[in-house]
Design a protein that fits this description.
The longest helix has about 35 residues. The strands form three sheets. The chain has a four-stranded antiparallel beta sheet with strand order 2-3-7-6, covered by helices on one side. A three-stranded mixed beta sheet has the order 1-4-5. The protein folds into three domains: about 110 residues, Acyl-CoA dehydrogenase/oxidase, N-terminal domain (Butyryl-Coa Dehydrogenase, subunit A, domain 1, Orthogonal Bundle); about 110 residues, Butyryl-CoA Dehydrogenase, subunit A, domain 2 (Beta Barrel); about 140 residues, Butyryl-CoA Dehydrogenase, subunit A, domain 3 (Up-down Bundle). Helix content is about 50%, strand content about 15%. The radius of gyration is 23 Å and the shape is globular. A hairpin with a 2-residue loop joins β2 and β3. The chain contains 14 helices and nine strands. α7 packs antiparallel against α11. The chain is of the alpha+beta class. Bound molecules: acetoacetyl-coenzyme A (CAA).
Length: about 425
Amino acid sequence: MALPNINFSDDHLRLQAVANQISREFLLPQAARHDKDESFNEDGFQAAVDAGLLGTWIPKAYGGNEHGVLGLAMVVEEFSKADPAFGVAFAVNALGSFPIIVGGTEEQKQKYLPRVAKGKAACAFALSEKFAGSDAGGLSVRGDKVDGGWKINGEKKWTTNGSRANILTCFAVTDPSSRSRRISAFIVENTDPGFSIKKVEDKMGIRSVPVCETAFDDVFVADDRLIGGSPGLGFKHSMMTLDLARPGVAAQAVGTAAGALELANTYANRRKQFGQSIASFQMVQQMLADMAMKTEAARWLVYACAAAADAGDMKAVNKYAAMAKCFSTDVAVAVATDAVQVFGGYGFMEDYPIAKFYRDAKILQIYEGTNQVQRMVIARNLMKEAGQYDYLNDVIPQEVQETYAGEYEIANT
Ligand code: CAA
């Protein structure tokens, strides 16, 4: 597998600086209030729209800036340093529009992507259901063929951005008898009759972004809303989408870890005990050093994965995206936990912003594929790679092979 070439253009660095400024000006001062009220930071979102950031991952041909998955990751990281909930609200626009980018017809791309890039249409990704989370192929929402289009019926769960989204990419069973072409993806607009928000969830963290149960009651979508124009491609499109979107959630985790570390480091250098700052104690130093090391390692894994995605190396991305998502989100939880520890009793109180990082971090290990699913994806890739190590036949001496014949089989057999 070729090493990803992480190529930061001047545009990427400018993008990062703009996102950082929005983060400090619009997100940081308001994060606690929006968390408390469970209200969305509309001013921050408008600032991102005005700066053209909604076009980051969208190709220029469809009104975007074409800064790719790397650009997306850099922006989400900056936002999440201040407010991880805003980071995911932004990233879900990519998750919800990637099915159109990877699988849409030219007409669908021309019609919908410019609206997303200009911030005129927010997106959501309606895949998960009550009985189909990790088993994304086990959906029960139906898409039935009718004259001129399809009727969608059923309920979706965990639809992040659900009540804010104008466009939802919705996955439904169109051929229950097929194993490999069972599912199709549709573009649903929130104004389509029969679409409704059933419930807005009450959550432990990321409280300012709505996560919803969405209901589809005889929602009619014309044939031109079937993503890709032919049925049965939905599962593949969902998997390709997740490969491209997971670097975004991984970047949210890096931002979460970096934000928590910055707070803990600042606090440790100010807080005095036994007549000196607690940062002067080696046990605290070790915690801070480990937090910094893990955060930095996660950051570069995310950049490598994003760069592989932008190079179009999708085979590599499947494994890298799972690694980046799993590693960085485990890091975010570990770093946020230690950051609370550095704050001591104050860390447990909502007076300081660190408790929110701790609450916001946990979901990272669960959504966009649990970390157990990510490890399964990594292991599946490793098992495929094991087939390439047939040189073992040459390096294991003949007599050893004969002695242990039958006890193991050389990979590839
Ligand atoms: N790219 C392209 N095709 C892929 C693919 C990929 N990355 N992964 C699988 N496929 C194809 C396979 O080639 C196979 O095709 P054929 O039938 O033609 O051979 C087909 O898809 C089925 O593949 P698998 O047998 O590997 O599928 P599986 O049922 O074993 O599932 C899985 C694999 C990895 C567990 C998958 O179900 C998965 O990723 N689950 C997690 C789902 C998830 O992340 N959900 C979160 C949704 S978003 C969210 O959290 C809410 C939010 O709003 C933030």
